[in-house]
Amino acid sequence: MSDLNNIYAEFGISQKVVDLSEKVLSSLEERFLEIDKNAEFNQMKVLAAMQKHKVSDIHFAATTGYGYNDLGRDVLEDVYATAFKAEAALVRPQLVSGTHALHVALSGNLRPGDELLSPVGKPYDTLEEVIGIRDSRGSLREYGVTYSQVDLLPDGSFDFEGIRKAINEKTKLVTIQRSKGYATRKTLSVEQIGELIKFVKSINPNIICMVDNCYGEFVERIEPIEVGADMIVGSLIKNPGGGLAPIGGYIVGTKECVDNASYRLSAPGLGKEIGASLGMNTSMFQGFFLSPTVVAGALKGAIFAANLYESLGFDCHPNATEPRFDIIQEITLRDPKALCAFCEGIQAAAPVDSYVKPEPWAMPGYDSDVIMAAGAFVGGSSIELSADGPMKEPYSVFFQGGLTWYHAKLGIMLSLQKIYDAGLL
Ligand SMILES: *Cc1c(COP(=O)(O)O)cnc(C)c1O
Questions:
Q1: Domain boundaries, position 274
Q2: Which is more confidently placed, 1 or 206?
């Protein structure tokens, strides 16, 4: 009874799905080995940063109130700065989400009359209101910061001529989104980001180059600071929180950029000096420590899913063999029932709320109903196994995460099982 197949059977997975999965997996050994090697490299990078800054149990103590002299908070920021090869970092539970961290980074570094440029097309949905692409109260636009955008060329490459034309004497900051998020373009590699930054700096070296690093951390061996970014920004309930950070965001970069952001997060004059860590330092340190291996598990899950579903005739982005630069996987299911069944499988595999059946629902900001599957320890965490998709053509599911590879694998197997059970394949 200690056979793996028996325990899979208890989850309702048929021999057919087990066999298909094993067949697909046997072709992935080399890729998984490469992922493990990257994880080892990144694990060493984080460990070395922790040792360099002499992380000790005194850093796990909670502070309250103003949080002056919060040693743990300050050392955590030094660890982030070192691991990401930057001068300074702001890593705080008071940065309540990725969008908030991006807003603080942008509004702290832009002044009225400045222009913000996105040379990689439209940014992530929630940034439209931050920037003022969609009318919204309190946007950068209301504060006199203008915005311009250059789309990627149809083949996904940078429109260097367009970018050169768009840069003018007002251009103060360039925002580069690493992950495609839920858009249809490809995710950028750190190397590609480096080429873009070099080009921008060749026109005007004073332009601040910021990278929205969400979903990209530890997927590669280098991070965007190493190819010239002045500032990188992300969320702790994605990759770098390692599934343990219960909240938080980070802004890492030059001392000047990070200080400017800190004056926006707290207040001019106060900056990084203030902000109690409220007992969250341990989870933030430990989550960062685990993040490289957690990201590796999520990556294996994404690659397994692409290979499994592509072998059954579904379009996958990235496809089965493409290199990976973030942890998101899109599968075009072409059928609303299959989309629901897929999400039911992910939900049924969850450690939390596995007995819940996800239903499509209207969501603010979406023009169609959306179905979501998540059974997470941390609310909304997307480094944990989660899936969602808008109930409209082409009925694509986006999924990401998995705190362990084995859990991601089970979720994907169950997603396929539910599609078979519904008679859709
Ligand atoms: C998730 C994400 C954001 C926003 O982060 P939230 O925590 O959801 O506010 C911004 N940009 C990208 C590329 C993302 O993936």
A1: 62-278
A2: 206
